[in-house]
Design brief:
Blueprint lengths: L8 H22 L6 H13 L4 E5 L2 H11 L7 E5 L4 H9 L3 E5 L21 E5 L10 H11 L2 E5 L7 E2 L2 E2 L6 E5 L13 E5 L2 H11 L20 H11 L2 H18 L14 E2 L5 E4 L3 H10 L29 H9 E4 L7 H12 L1 H4 L1
Parallel strand pairs: 2-3, 2-4, 4-5, 5-8
Antiparallel strand pairs: 1-9, 6-7, 6-10, 8-9, 11-12
The structure holds pyridoxal-5'-phosphate.
């Protein structure tokens, strides 16, 4: 029996059901399925939310990433630097434009890209860096922006897990040249299907993404470049507009829940996540480490507590990227953490009682096991 689920999207749906259904009905009755008012309004509101000037809705976060690289002119023969411990989509986007992924280990305490190890990976072929705001915590952007300036590199923020997170008071999405968001249902701002967006201050880049994402055209049947089809649809945009009204509140609830875990967890075998001094962490995931992960997970599972691992295999050790021929030991922190990390249940609607139940179980892990 499940006592504490890892994620429950139904509770949130029930809390906004009436609003969502009437917004969806409106889209249906207007038959505004692709493009239209809701998409345009959502783009304006989400640009505003991310403190960026422009927003272009696309089909998903992975498309957002590769379209961003494409719009920046990154392609065959180029290298793009990112973190070894990201979700594979970041790296797939680099492959999708024909460029070569170059990986960097992660920071020991924040799990984001280790900014002290970026420079040593730069070559003449390097064109861009993709810092990932992993688990909802921004990467250390100042040093990254400095390196990018010195080496003339573009910065693409992978903000798929970090809607509304802040770096030194600035929202993610407003810092790099361009930023990519996912609205996959489980993300902090989740659609009821796939969705994504690119935000930027740069009008030229926004126009390029717009062109690429809809068959190379702004005006229907006038095609400027060979493009693709990657659009946010009207139903998803209408749902996202409803959810955007609540995201601040939900982020507060996530942060509050993380704080409750922080206060209650006191098993010395468990390393808790930290919020970097520079950051406002939005806790897409609450990730702890333990040396006895297998036992830990099955112990919690026996108590009905679901957990996740984000992610068990660093990109360079996955079958998908065997071709990079990066030997084990190259990214020691990412590799070690791949074996130690566990994501605990965390979502806005998780109750204090549930967090207490999980924390108590974890605090008794040694005694009981
Ligand atoms: C979810 C995610 C993506 C991809 O987004 P999709 O909408 O699922 O394509 C990219 N990067 C990171 C870090 C993610 O978590």
């Amino acid at each position: 029996m499940v006592t504490v689920p890892f994620l429950d999207l139904k509770i949130q749906y029930e809390s906004i059901e009436d609003e969502v259904m009437s917004a969806v009905k409106k889209v249906f009755s207007q038959a505004a399925f692709i493009g239209g008012d809701e998409v345009q309004k959502f783009e304006e509101e989400f640009a505003n939310y991310s403190q960026a000037q422009y927003c272009v809705g696309v089909a998903n976060g992975t498309d957002a990433l590769w379209l961003a690289l494409k719009a920046l002119g990154v392609g065959q023969g180029d290298e793009v630097i990112t973190a070894a411990n990201t979700f594979i989509a970041t790296v797939e986007a680099i492959s999708a434009v024909g460029a070569t992924p170059v990986l960097v280990d992660c920071d020991k305490s924040t799990y984001t890209i280790d900014v002290t190890k970026i420079e040593e990976r730069i070559t003449e072929k390097t064109r861009a860096v993709i810092p990932v705001h992993l688990y909802g915590q921004p990467a250390d952007m100042d040093p990254i922006m400095n390196i990018a300036k010195n080496y003339n590199l573009k910065v693409v923020e992978d903000a798929a897990q970090a809607h509304g997170a802040e770096y030194k008071g600035k929202r993610v999405g407003s810092i790099g040249d361009i930023a990519c968001f996912s609205f996959y249902p489980g993300k902090n701002l989740g659609a009821y299907g796939d969705g994504g967006a690119v935000v930027t201050h740069n009008q030229d880049l926004a126009t390029k993404i717009r062109l690429l994402s809809q068959h190379g055209s702004i005006e229907k049947y006038v095609h400027e470049v060979p493009g693709y089809n990657s659009r946010l649809d009207g139903v998803q945009a209408a749902i996202l507009r409803i959810k955007l009204k609540y995201i601040e509140e939900w982020t507060k609830m996530r942060r509050k829940n993380a704080e409750i875990y922080n206060n209650l967890l006191r098993n010395p075998e468990v390393t808790k996540p930290i919020e970097a001094e520079y950051s406002l962490h939005v806790f897409h995931l609450y990730v702890i480490r333990t040396k006895r992960r297998k036992a830990f997970i099955s112990y919690l599972n026996d108590k009905g507590i679901q957990t996740g691992i984000h992610y068990p295999i660093p990109v360079h050790l996955s079958n998908a990227y065997k071709g990079l021929e990066i030997p084990i030991g190259t990214y020691p922190v990412a590799e070690k953490y791949g074996n130690d990390i566990v994501s605990l249940p965390l979502f806005p609607e998780l109750t204090k009682e549930q967090i207490k139940f999980v924390s108590n179980a974890i605090n008794n892990f040694d005694k009981d096991y």
